[in-house]
Design goal:
heterodimer, A: alpha+beta, Rieske Iron-sulfur Protein, six-stranded antiparallel sheet, four-stranded antiparallel sheet, 2 helices, 10 strands, elongated, disordered N terminus, B: mainly alpha, Cytochrome Bc1 Complex, Chain C, Helix Hairpins, 2 domains, two-stranded antiparallel sheet, 16 helices, globular
């Protein structure tokens, strides 16, 4: 196109025409964008469906663990709080502690080790305090979150602190 | 270094290794004939576009589909639980049907323009093979939701290979994965549908498209008879490509409209003890052979009719396949006319038996 202009420099484009062309290109571009968005939106929502379901699941604020009050001293019960793994520990001294079981380092599921009295992540050796969830050693940058625990005759209620 | 010289040197580097300039020169010189029947040139491109839609929506369905015993439940989930899953599934089914339609239009336009003549025999044969694979795609995909309709369609459809003398029951049993249509059938149809058939289809499609580049578009005999100076053509780049893309956009719009306004339904989960639902019938592209077999069965009851039907189809399809080797002369003559009438009879037979088929089950 630019070559033609050089060959015939005396043909001056009508400025009115130029605006029309610009307006046309802008409108066509906008229409193209809208069209692409109209195609991409359902595909995005379709692929994001499980993510949204999980989000709805994490909206859970309370989980009732039936018969968990019978958990022996020095043992652990793994359960799902929403979509993520969590643990309920019945310590030797009778204290109940519930924490998220997702390592704050790279997301592995951690485990309670009663003999060492610690929470350990096998992936990269992170260690947490089994009473407070504090990150004691290894790579974890943050503590594990604690849940509120209420024990009654029929089970254990774990809720967001 | 200015950005322009960087671009040039990158281009030169790639060009030296991949020969982009040759490709660009080829594209620049490629032309498409312009005449009264040019409209039919778009149908191969439309078929290709719809195939790409099939690949794309197919991969999206693959994200949630589970073959085997869980098949129906996973399709129910796609249709009713996942956001816009109904739309993705509907687009896949509709574009499958539109693709078969576009391929049929493409085939008949090639036939009547006599585009199968020398040197395009391989184009014709590879195109017919692609149509054959496309119909197996359709047949195998139909079972995957494992609802009532797909269950019976597969049961009935597998009776066709079953009727082949001697080896029929073995072939049908291998396809079915046992004496009955079960989750084993879905599992192997799934493997066929997403691995085996694409692996056959894609290289063949590449070959077919390469042949089109090699030989260019054929012109109908009426245009071929014109002296070269009276023939018109347009450059492929960008004129024809622009029109081709416009056709793709129109196809996409039609597909979007059909898929969203008439969403594909999902029937009840299959039940091997339930009787066949009333009014059950094959997909429209299998309606014609279904009706012909029914008519033949009326004339020749029992096994004789079945065998006669299979022989007749085999003969018809073989003649259709071999047409480039029968109708070879450029000048119009008796053979050219015979081929033309054979094509007309095929179209009339297909259309009329399809209409009768739908009329009867109405």
């Amino acid at each position: 196109m630019s070559q033609e202009k050089v060959i015939s420099p005396n043909i001056v484009e009508d400025p009115g025409e130029q605006t029309t062309r610009r307006a046309f290109l802008t409108a066509a571009g906008a229409a193209g964008l809208l069209y692409t968005a109209a195609l991409a939106y359902p595909i995005y929502r379709y692929l994001a469906s499980p993510e949204e379901m999980a989000m709805n699941a994490t909206a859970v604020t309370e989980v009732t663990l039936k018969d968990a009050q019978k958990l022996p001293l020095g043992s652990v019960l793994m359960f799902k709080f929403g979509s993520a793994p969590a643990m309920l520990i019945h310590h030797q001294d009778g204290r109940w502690v519930s924490l998220t079981a997702v390592c704050t380092h790279l997301g592995c599921t951690v485990q309670y080790e009663p003999q060492a009295d610690r929470i350990h992540c096998a992936c990269h050796g992170g260690v947490y305090d089994p009473y407070t969830g504090a990150n004691v050693s290894g790579p974890p940058p943050k503590p594990l979150k604690l849940f509120k625990v209420a024990v009654n005759d029929t089970g254990v209620e774990v809720s967001r602190a | 270094m200015s950005s322009k010289t960087i671009t040039t040197s990158v281009y030169d580097w790639v060009d030296e290794r991949l020969g982009l300039t040759e490709l660009a020169a080829f594209a620049r010189h490629k032309t498409v004939p312009v005449h009264a029947q040019s409209f039919w040139y778009y149908w191969g491109g439309i078929s290709l576009f719809l195939f790409l839609v099939q690949c794309f929506t197919g991969v999206l369905l693959l994200v949630y589909y589970r073959p085997g015993a869980d098949a129906f439940e996973s399709v129910r989930q796609i249709t009713f639980v996942m956001h816009f899953g109904w739309l993705i599934r509907s687009a896949h089914s509709w574009s499958a049907n539109l693709m078969i339609f576009a391929i049929l239009v493409h085939m008949f336009s090639v036939y009547f323009m006599k585009a199968y003549r020398k040197p395009r025999e391989f184009g014709w044969l590879s195109g017919m093979a692609l149509l054959g694979i496309a119909s197996v795609f359709g047949f195998s995909g139909y079972l995957l939701p494992m609802d009532e309709l797909s269950y019976f369609a597969t049961k009935v459809g597998l009776e066709i290979p079953n009727a082949i003398p001697y080896v029929g029951p073995l072939v049908a049993g291998m396809l079915r994965g046992g004496p009955e249509v079960t989750e084993f059938t879905v599992q192997r149809f799934f493997a066929l549908h997403v691995v085996v058939l694409p692996a056959l289809f894609l290289p063949l499609l590449g070959f077919h498209l390469w042949l089109v580049q090699r030989h260019g578009n054929a012109v109908p005999p009426s245009v071929e008879a014109l002296p070269p100076e009276e023939r018109k053509a347009m450059p492929f780049m960008p004129n024809f490509l622009r029109k081709d893309l416009a056709m793709w956009l129109i196809s996409l719009n039609i597909l979007a409209l059909l898929a969203s306004v008439f969403p594909w339904s999902l029937g009840k989960a299959f039940d091997p003890l339930a009787p066949a639902p009333v009014g059950i019938h094959p997909e429209w592209y299998f309606m014609s052979p279904f009706e012909m077999l029914k008519v033949l069965g009326g004339i020749l009851p029992g096994e004789a009719g079945e065998i006669a039907g299979i022989l007749l189809f085999t003969l018809g399809i073989t003649l259709w396949l071999l047409i480039p080797f029968y109708d070879t002369k450029r000048e119009s003559g008796q053979r050219a006319r015979a081929a033309h009438y054979f094509g007309l009879i095929a179209v009339i037979l297909l259309l009329s038996t399809t209409v009768i088929g739908y009329w009867v089950i109405r």
